[in-house]
């Protein structure tokens, strides 16, 4: 998007009345969020809500993707080494994914088999001696940039990072400020993956890319700049829809292990070799989106502090037609066919078996996606999985990325980094939960086994079924509207 002074003025000028109203109500303590937020936060969230709400000017999917997938010049405290790794000649990885989808489903799901493509990603690391506006060094090859990045690492932590963006927008380049901070905090490096976006590439294209990225860390293709990375040094990480990718990949890996005889490590043919597929050291999630049906109560009830529009306000919001949407053949959901919404590799909240999972870190706010994270955390603890839970009072979705100025954002990054360092270093991580108050940042312990949500497993299934039915009704409406136009 246009971040020039004139561009920002053009964006903000029409919102001046709303900004002034927000400032007045906040200053008079008449806003319901005034006791929890500072004025800058209140104005920021108000602007984002206005931009994302159902009354905003409709922009086509193609235009949104064009605006959010730009690759700006690299500058500041980040090393960027771009890679494009050749696709494996064998089809084994792809077929392993397809088998897991079939084995974990009901047989009624419809989905499109994606092709295998070269993997695009970038290595990100912290560049300590750069100014915030300093361009990257000129005339360095991508390998030289990678080597410079490695010289600044102080730990073996490797984050396999999947960016957010509702599966249809954003790009790794957008996340360089985030990944640079995580690299600094962990002392390690980040493999920032450019997975295929929907609706042009529906499920399981993105998951195939994520699986390929994990294997490429473990067993680098001949054209990779990096040496093999042991699984015990890898943490799967992601925010929002990146949490979908991370948890779906973890479930895929668990399924591959479940399908392998006890005591054996599964293998697959990859770039001419039979390679092992061990489990990673951990998984770290920020405001994860793990229920694509959007069915749990917080999607409608937890709107006070969030900026995301609830499903009820977007049901009749029509996007302009473009080459990307509506899809052909038509479907209601960007990411997948309606029949696949509750598949465990589409909505990982549907997955019941998390046994053998490595430790899991959650950072959430009082946001619309909180229920699904809470359900998964409690489910995992009951199955003996180590869970570290950080719950931030009055904070919206992915708050540390949109509210970098608040002290709570630094706490989030510190807690995220601490978890990644500890699981990679082999330190004993025990299940624990904390609720962190807004402004004061005072903490109190919470019981991760029973204190996160009262939603039962039976209720979860019913909520998700209703959510899928609501999305399915949009599909029927869309078909009816299409027929009426003929």
From TrEMBL:
Give the matching SUPFAM superfamilies.
alpha/beta-Hydrolases
List residues of the Alpha/beta hydrolase fold-3 domain. 159-400
Which keywords annotate this record? Hydrolase
Question: Which stretches does UniProt call biased (Acidic residues)?
Answer: 131-140
Q: Does the keyword Hydrolase apply?
A: yes
Xref: Pfam families: Abhydrolase_3 (PF07859)
Q: What protein does this entry describe?
A: Acetyl-hydrolase
Q: Which organism is it from?
A: Setomelanomma holmii
């Amino acid at each position: 998007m246009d971040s020039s002074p004139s561009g920002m003025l053009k964006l903000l000028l029409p919102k001046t009345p709303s900004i002034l109203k927000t400032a007045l109500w906040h200053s008079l303590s008449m806003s319901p969020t005034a006791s929890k937020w500072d004025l800058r936060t209140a104005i920021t969230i108000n602007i984002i809500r206005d931009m994302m709400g159902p009354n905003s000017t409709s922009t086509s999917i193609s235009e949104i993707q064009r605006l959010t997938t730009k690759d700006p010049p690299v500058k500041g405290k980040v090393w960027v080494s771009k890679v494009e790794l050749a696709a494996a000649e064998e089809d084994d990885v792809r077929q392993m994914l397809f088998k897991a989808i079939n084995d974990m489903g009901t047989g009624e799901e419809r989905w499109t088999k994606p092709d295998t493509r070269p993997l695009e990603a970038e290595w990100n690391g912290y560049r300590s001696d750069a100014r915030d506006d300093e361009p990257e060094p000129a005339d360095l090859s991508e390998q030289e940039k990678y080597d410079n990045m490695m010289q600044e690492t102080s730990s073996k932590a490797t984050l396999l990072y999947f960016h957010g963006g509702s599966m249809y927008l954003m790009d790794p380049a957008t996340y360089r400020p985030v990944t640079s901070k995580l690299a600094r905090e962990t002392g390690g490096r980040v493999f920032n993956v450019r997975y295929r976006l929907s609706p042009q590439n529906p499920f399981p294209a993105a998951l195939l890319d994520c699986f390929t990225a994990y294997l490429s860390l473990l067993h680098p293709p001949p054209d990779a700049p990096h040496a093999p990375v042991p699984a015990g040094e890898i943490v799967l990480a992601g925010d929002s829809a990146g949490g979908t990718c991370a948890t779906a990949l973890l479930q895929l890996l668990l399924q591959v292990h479940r399908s392998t005889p006890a005591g054996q490590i599964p293998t697959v043919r990859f770039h001419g070799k039979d390679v092992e597929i061990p489990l990673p050291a951990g998984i770290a999630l920020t405001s994860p989106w793990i229920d694509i049906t959007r069915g749990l109560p917080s999607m409608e009830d937890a709107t006070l502090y969030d900026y995301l529009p609830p499903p009820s306000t977007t049901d009749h919001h029509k996007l302009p037609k473009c080459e990307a949407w509506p899809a052909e053949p038509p479907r209601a959901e960007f990411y997948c066919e309606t029949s696949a919404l509750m598949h465990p590799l589409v909505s990982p909240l549907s997955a019941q078996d998390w046994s053998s999972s490595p430790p899991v870190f959650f950072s959430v706010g009082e946001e619309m996606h909180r229920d699904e994270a809470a359900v998964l955390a409690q489910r995992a603890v009951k199955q003996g999985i180590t869970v570290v839970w950080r719950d931030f009072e009055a904070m919206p979705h992915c708050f540390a990325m949109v509210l970098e100025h608040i002290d709570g954002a630094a706490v989030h990054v510190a807690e995220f980094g601490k978890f990644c360092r500890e699981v990679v270093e082999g330190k004993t991580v025990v299940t624990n939960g904390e609720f962190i108050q807004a402004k004061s940042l005072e903490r109190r312990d919470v019981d991760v086994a029973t204190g996160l949500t009262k939603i039962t497993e039976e209720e979860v299934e019913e909520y998700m079924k209703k959510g899928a039915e609501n999305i399915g009704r949009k599909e029927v409406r869309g078909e009816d509207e299409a027929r009426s136009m003929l």
